[in-house]
Amino acid sequence: MKLLARALRLCEFGRQASSRRLVAGRGCVGPRRGCCAPIQVVGPRADLLPSGACITGRIMRPDDANVAGNVHGGTILKMIEEAGAIISTRHCNSQNGERCVAALARVERTDFLSPMCIGEVAHVSAEITYTSKHSVEVQVNVMSENILTGAKKLTNKATLWYVPLSLKNVDKVLEVPPVVYSRQEQEEEGRKRYEAQKLERMETKWRNGDIVQPVLNPEPNTVSYSQSSLIHLVGPSDCTLHGFVHGGVTMKLMDEVAGIVAARHCKTNIVTASVDAINFHDKIRKGCVITISGRMTFTSNKSMEIEVLVDADPVVDSSQKRYRAASAFFTYVSLSQEGRSLPVPQLVPETEDEKKRFEEGKGRYLQMKAKRQGHTEPQP
């Protein structure tokens, strides 16, 4: 209670200080979300766009973390998406025209650089870095703060893509107001990122047609042994005011299922290490029943790759069929009670499809390992 009281005092001090610095009426403050307000760019910050930034923050509570006190990756992903949705929706409504809400289309690879614990404050900052005709790129950074010592550390960096949907018809995608770039290179680099993610999103949509089937009496360390599913009825609290699910809610559920798969496989404390690109193929509407399925695809000596698929079933609308709504690959690591990484039991693929997915996962693992080491190609 003392820790929480001190956190609340610090938050109140921060809000009072912010109100003296920011333009009145432009920020928004909530009792649980912290504060969100545009920052006026002052001084020679040529690397920042004039669209401003969004900052949110809140203290991590026990229900945000696992039994070991580490904050769930899904909790952090949800906060990242909330900040991205605020700044992109604000930008898309910055000019006179048809009002809209920004919907999440894709999250690029997100690495969990450092664990966050109960009692720490998460500071999430979002900034628009590129706009195309119908989409917005948002860069998000997450910092954790120990409010007893004041120590801060970077925990996450993420890139998200949003599209503006009309409030009159959420199936209609509107045009995005342009931004003014301080350097020509910014726009060119952003266009390359836009084209690359657009291509990858389409490729992922076409190859994710299969479903996870249950198997009776599976053997330990096989794909079937740890695969898991969660069925969730989408209610009003999961949705925007316009009747479709928040991207952050979906990501949190995906991380929960991936965590169950990882825990079943290695039977130790596990934490999210990274998330490959999360693609949102279609909107999920209020009243749908969604099935989030996870299965192990690859294991290295100390990491596990888990594929997570989200299927939506519009049970209240018989004219619509079940469809694939989102997909991603999560990477988990196993930790000892002291927080040290542990060896992971090696996955035993049985079917030809499982062996194929294992080799594909191995390729992604080697490619990412080579990038971390500064090489362009995986080394044997």
From TrEMBL:
<dbReference type="InterPro" id="IPR006683">
    <property type="entry name" value="Thioestr_dom"/>
</dbReference>
<dbReference type="GO" id="GO:0036114">
    <property type="term" value="P:medium-chain fatty-acyl-CoA catabolic process"/>
</dbReference>
<keyword id="KW-0963">Cytoplasm</keyword>
<keyword id="KW-0378">Hydrolase</keyword>
<dbReference type="GO" id="GO:1900535">
    <property type="term" value="P:palmitic acid biosynthetic process"/>
</dbReference>
<dbReference type="GO" id="GO:0051792">
    <property type="term" value="P:medium-chain fatty acid biosynthetic process"/>
</dbReference>
<dbReference type="GO" id="GO:0015937">
    <property type="term" value="P:coenzyme A biosynthetic process"/>
</dbReference>
<feature type="compositionally biased region" description="Basic and acidic residues">
    <location>
        <begin position="353"/>
        <end position="363"/>
    </location>
</feature>
<dbReference type="Pfam" id="PF03061">
    <property type="entry name" value="4HBT"/>
</dbReference>
<feature type="active site">
    <location>
        <position position="66"/>
    </location>
</feature>
<feature type="active site">
    <location>
        <position position="255"/>
    </location>
</feature>
<feature type="region of interest" description="Disordered">
    <location>
        <begin position="350"/>
        <end position="380"/>
    </location>
</feature>
<dbReference type="GO" id="GO:0009062">
    <property type="term" value="P:fatty acid catabolic process"/>
</dbReference>
<dbReference type="InterPro" id="IPR040170">
    <property type="entry name" value="Cytosol_ACT"/>
</dbReference>
<feature type="domain" description="HotDog ACOT-type">
    <location>
        <begin position="224"/>
        <end position="338"/>
    </location>
</feature>
<keyword id="KW-0677">Repeat</keyword>
<dbReference type="InterPro" id="IPR033120">
    <property type="entry name" value="HOTDOG_ACOT"/>
</dbReference>
<dbReference type="InterPro" id="IPR029069">
    <property type="entry name" value="HotDog_dom_sf"/>
</dbReference>
<keyword id="KW-0443">Lipid metabolism</keyword>
<dbReference type="GO" id="GO:0036116">
    <property type="term" value="P:long-chain fatty-acyl-CoA catabolic process"/>
</dbReference>
<feature type="domain" description="HotDog ACOT-type">
    <location>
        <begin position="50"/>
        <end position="168"/>
    </location>
</feature>
<dbReference type="GO" id="GO:0005654">
    <property type="term" value="C:nucleoplasm"/>
</dbReference>
<protein>
    <recommendedName>
        <fullName>palmitoyl-CoA hydrolase</fullName>
        <ecNumber>3.1.2.2</ecNumber>
    </recommendedName>
</protein>
<dbReference type="GO" id="GO:0052816">
    <property type="term" value="F:long-chain fatty acyl-CoA hydrolase activity"/>
</dbReference>
<dbReference type="GO" id="GO:0052689">
    <property type="term" value="F:carboxylic ester hydrolase activity"/>
</dbReference>
<dbReference type="GO" id="GO:0005829">
    <property type="term" value="C:cytosol"/>
</dbReference>
<dbReference type="GO" id="GO:0042803">
    <property type="term" value="F:protein homodimerization activity"/>
</dbReference>
<dbReference type="GO" id="GO:0036042">
    <property type="term" value="F:long-chain fatty acyl-CoA binding"/>
</dbReference>
<keyword id="KW-0719">Serine esterase</keyword>
